[in-house]
Amino acid sequence: MVRAAESAGQTALSDPFPIDRGVVQGDIVSPYCFILALQLIFLQCDDRPDQGILLQEGTDRCVRVKSLKYADDIATISPDVVQSSQRVTLIAQKSFAMGTLEAHTVKSEHMPVMKEGVFGGGSVSEADIKAADFEFVCEHCDRSFSTRHGLSVHEGRWCGEAERESFPSDFEVDRILDARGPPDKRFYLVSWKGKNTSAAPVAGTLPGDPWPPTWEPARYLDTAPHAVDTFWMSAPYALTDTIEDPSEFRCADCCQFCKSAAGLGRHRSCCKSIPGSRDGQKTVSQVLHQGDFSVSSPSPAAQGCLVPARYNGDG
Description:
Elements: E1 4-7, E2 10-13, H1 30-45, E3 53-55, E4 63-65, E5 67-70, E6 73-76, H2 81-99, H3 126-132, E7 136-137, E8 144-145, H4 148-158, H5 160-170, E9 173-180, E10 187-192, E11 214-217, H6 225-234, E12 249-250, E13 257-258, H7 261-268, H8 284-287
Antiparallel strand pairs: 1-2, 3-4, 5-6, 7-8, 9-10, 10-11, 12-13
């Protein structure tokens, strides 16, 4: 390989130099070179006719699927764990031997899919899962896992009990300051106890600062019924009222306040809390304790309380 250099209108060539591994960063040809090299490896070590699974078996549309490839992400499809292990091991060995390509062992995952007629017709009860009794157990729902990585993925992504328990333990309601919306879409302005005790900012709150009031949907305050009841005992509204302020530009689905009608329109065009929106309903972690909602004119119940003076949705 040589590198061309241009100086004063003249082109000079350097001495040849070797490229031992990898491809040139940013070169548009590099991805094609990588795919060609990877395809050659797969043709030599993962091209047996008995591998993979048959789809539409017994029909004229029967096809054997062995793997799915996209750039450097490969999914091997096998009928059982033995074949899957043999194939992945051979691919990893050949990739390193032929092109010094190393498989990422941490990112590699095994996902079993039970077919009909296997393991009791493909149905596994809750009792079967608990009876597995693996080493790593979720403290929130008692599910067990064979690896620590599997447990961490479960707690971080899938365990509903962990998410439901984290909110009341991390944030404690002090009192309710105000309310907005109809009874079926009620939002409350919540004053929180405590402060940010972590060493890093959380939702815009600096370490050591008290949690600012935030607007939360009523369904997230089922652990604070006393605070809600106390608010309604002294509130200037009735429980069945639709509470709105004509001077506010408020999104009825997420309770975000905007500066103008145009800003509200821009926000509504991309609000994730609107039913049927492209991204669907917000999750608990997306909605709870964001700390960046504000009201343009707080009611008497909110006077004297720190309300975040920040607006969103005006693009």
